Amino acid sequence: MFKDFSKREIALILNCSRITSSINNINANRHFNLGFLNRFYMLQFARNKIIEIVKVQGVKPLGHNEATWLKILVNSFYLNLRGAIDNLAWFLNYIYNLQEIINEDSSTSRSFTSLFGDTFLEKLKLKDKKLADRLKTYKKWQSELKLFRDPAAHRIPLMFAQSIINEEGLSKSNEINKELQDLCKNPTTLEIDRIGYLLESWQNLGRFEPIIITTEVAKSDIKSAPNQFDKDYELILDIGELIVTQVAII
Hints:
By secondary structure, the protein is mostly helical. The protein folds into 2 domains: 6-154 and 225-248, no CATH class; 167-203. Helix content is 67%, strand content 6%. The longest helix is centred in the N-terminal third of the chain and has 33 residues, at 64-96. The protein is elongated, with a radius of gyration of 23 Å.
């Protein structure tokens, strides 16, 4: 279901360790080790835990705890994915001195330091044409990632669907919801037991499928979790390998 990237993960981490001693700029080192490498470990951990939960879950609908854990993990993954991209941009800015004055508190530096930004890539091209040309090929991916950007203010967090319900299950769900509404008006002791039974029945409707739900303004969309995670994780591996390999030969 999910691809195995363990060999590439180990190779990237080893290569990162090898070039660490050759990074003389303290700020470049900070963004590379404390930034990119730390975030990569968090990406690896979040993805592995998601795979673990999905495999154990099987087809049983997600319970509240499992659904909450998956929400935490999927939002952590995409927050750190975008953060890792930003850390690599700052790393290259410092390594290649792309700006005469680099100030992380300055809006000028912050807006410039975008790994796939046109101005950033034009400056990088003057220093390392091969790297700039390769990074430019990922611009489309950057646009696609906007749908998964970290859920900051005014955004709806990413989540896994707790279950997928067919037409028969949907009809049953509507019946349960109607009965629950009636029972919850002035429930007696016996009716409280019935409410518990109905809630449990409702939670077990349908089947679990590893699907991520995204929300952009009033529009919702669904994505296959294995396909999406494999694609995005493989691409950050590609970019990490590209930059580490290229910087190692400077």
